[in-house]
Automatic annotation (TrEMBL):
Chain intervals for the UniProt region annotation (Disordered): 268-293
Listed InterPro entries: MHYT_dom
Record-annotated MHYT domain positions: 9-200
Lineage top rank: taxon: Bacteria
Transmembrane portions of the chain: 15-35, 47-70, 82-102, 114-133, 145-167, 179-197, 217-237
Pfam families (UniProt xref): MHYT
Name recorded for this polypeptide: MHYT domain-containing signal sensor
């Protein structure tokens, strides 16, 4: 069994992974809070989709690969397969999005949150081990079944708690605390899954491994992180702007002042027009009856 390092760059990787997990969870919970206040299903779905990208793409997927930058096998090169890496991103976003759509509509109930948590946890688990499958070394990767089961339990519990937070917490302080808890759970699941893996080198296996170097992944990870944050921020800004200037049914508010939101109409403007300078309308003169004489 080959020697494996999980913290090649010291505390930098776990700290960066935790920070990404926290920020993604924080933005995602802000989005779900807005989704609960949405008046229409389309607006609610938009906020839930934004939250799915923030949590699934940021808090889970980006955290995973930020932590993986610190993974090293001294006796073998480590390379990443791009198609499998992208597939793991799709698993993360789809799993979180499905769970949020389930709990984001209808009445809140514990059985529904648990069922969605199991489904989402399975997707998160698929994301993790798909990403691991996309990692190539000059040998064979094996997994300890007990630790794999432990990582699955953590993934399901973390997903269930995250979905419960998504339909419950409101306000900056509670959302920050919930995001901190979610980040600990996501990182715990990742490093438990990583501890389950061992590398067994084969002398007959060529040392030439295909794929991208881990450090080369810094550039796409940085770009994807920036694109995710900017995309989520712009989508949220657009959604808030539309909600500000439209009514509950999505119809633009005609004649609404941006500050006071007091309805305006032509009739009110006519009634409010000052009468100074107008000529008074002539009053009718009563007819005088004719007199004799």
């Amino acid at each position: 069994m080959a020697e494996v390092h999980h913290f090649t760059y010291g505390v930098f990787n776990p700290l960066a992974a935790y920070l990404l997990a926290f920020l993604g969870s924080f933005f995602g919970l802000l989005g779900t809070a807005r989704a609960r206040d949405a008046r229409t299903s389309s607006r609610r779905n938009r906020w839930l989709l934004i939250s799915a990208f923030a949590i699934g793409g940021g808090a889970i997927w980006l955290m995973h690969f930020a932590a993986m930058l610190g993974f090293e096998v001294p006796d073998s090169p480590v390379r990443f397969d791009i198609p499998m890496t992208v597939l793991s991103l799709a698993f993360a976003v789809a799993a979180v999005g499905t769970g949020l759509l389930i709990v984001g509509h209808g009445r809140r109930s514990l059985p529904k949150v648990i069922a969605a948590g199991v489904l989402t946890g399975g997707g998160v688990l698929a994301m993790h081990y798909t990403g691991m499958y996309g990692m190539n070394v000059a040998g064979e990767m094996r997994y300890d079944l007990g630790l794999v089961v432990a990582s699955a339990i953590i993934a399901v519990v973390a997903s269930t708690v995250a979905l419960w937070f998504a339909v419950s917490v409101r306000g900056w302080a509670p959302i920050s605390g919930a995001a901190a808890i979610m980040a600990v759970a996501v990182c715990g699941m990742h490093y438990t899954g990583m501890a389950a893996m061992s590398v067994h080198l084969d002398p007959a296996t060529p040392t030439q491994v295909d794929g991208f170097r881990p450090l080369t992944m810094i550039v796409p990870i940085t770009l994807i992180t920036a694109a995710t944050i900017v995309g989520v921020a712009l989508s949220a800004l657009q959604a808030m702007t539309e909600e500000e200037f439209t009514d509950g049914a999505g119809t633009p508010r005609r004649g609404v002042h941006a500050e006071t939101a007091v309805p305006w109409s032509l009739k009110q403007a006519t009634m409010a027009t000052p009468t100074v300078g107008r000529r008074p309308s002539p009053r009718p003169v009563p007819l005088r009856s004719p007199t004799n004489g």
